Amino acid sequence: MANTGSSSLKLRVVDPSGETTASCDLAAPGDPVDLGAMSAFLETGEDIEAVGHRVVHGGREFLEPLVLDSAGIQRLSRVEDLAPLHNGPALRVLEALRDLCPDLPHVACFDTAFHAGLPDEAALYALPREWTERFGLRRFGFHGISHAWAARRAAELLGRPQEGLRLVTCHLGAGASLAAVSDGASVDTTMGFTPNEGLVMATRSGSTDPGMLLWLIRHAGISPDALEHGLEHDSGLRGLTGTSGDMREVIAASTTDGRARTALGVYLHRMRAGIAAMVAATDGTDALVFTGGVGEHAPLVRAEACAGLRFLGLQADEEANAADERGDRDIAVAGAPVRALVVESREDLEIARTVRAVLGA
Questions:
Q1: Catalytic residue flag (residue 348)
Q2: pTM
Q3: Looking at 47, 111, 257, 324, which residue is catalytic?
Q4: Domain check: are 223 and 309 in the same one?
Q5: What value does the mean pLDDT take over residues 170-178?
Q6: Phi, psi angles (nearest 5°) of residue 9
Q7: Which domain holds residue 295?
Q8: In this structure, what CATH number is given to the domain that contains residue 85?
């Protein structure tokens, strides 16, 4: 499994039982790709039968996993501009691994695919129809591989089938998004045409007033390139605090620094509002599921999220939530009508499951 992000490349080998038998984390792939590091990983002696590739943005064209050939890669290159920080590196890694493993099947797994079935009321922007139809403007949603795994794992933890189960999955990391999942399918999400819509993130702004952005271009002399960089790299928690934007740093500083305390409040306010919106999309919820680096390792964020949503039936158990534990678990108080779950993000397992399903393995 090759999980290519904007700042890192994670390589994993997953056996049929779901065990990770080899792993390697590399720096963001450059241009050209460091073939030596990938080749060294492939020579660990593991028996690899197929390669699954995470691709962030599939656009309108790729609504399900794709077994790749040369024509498929050319088609993929046409959606690179939708997520240049992610799709470009993923394509370079994909081509490099196909060169290194030409006899293996390669499957592209799209983060947007889980949200491809969003109903129109959740997917469409209220824009001129000519723009929508000509340019394919809609809400795509992201983190779909993580949301799909979290929903599947939550059903197992609750001992229930996905059918009839209503969940809000919270992928909280440097990037962050929520999904409303009903019967195992995404029916709403917070990210949109790009990963910049929705929640406050480490360095991304999340949703902002488009009129304000137009004002910055027209009246403040901010160029589109500078605006894009500012929204993606200098906003979010970084912009509010002047720190790196890492949640651990923000929480540590919030006890003495007013800016960090305010930033944490903005983050939590937007998140609670988003969760309530997701609950409305599924007409109630059975569980709130936390995953991702922040979701798994920031008890304060989980506690504050649940405390602000007690009217929905959420109540975290203080001891269970604060315990320094690893692994998937329920942190809600006994008898709470809505459960609160912590699920380790395992995109590798979800990609492996998808690849085996596509190849009939």
A1: no
A2: 0.94
A3: 111
A4: yes
A5: 96
A6: -130, 120
A7: 159-347
A8: 3.30.420.40
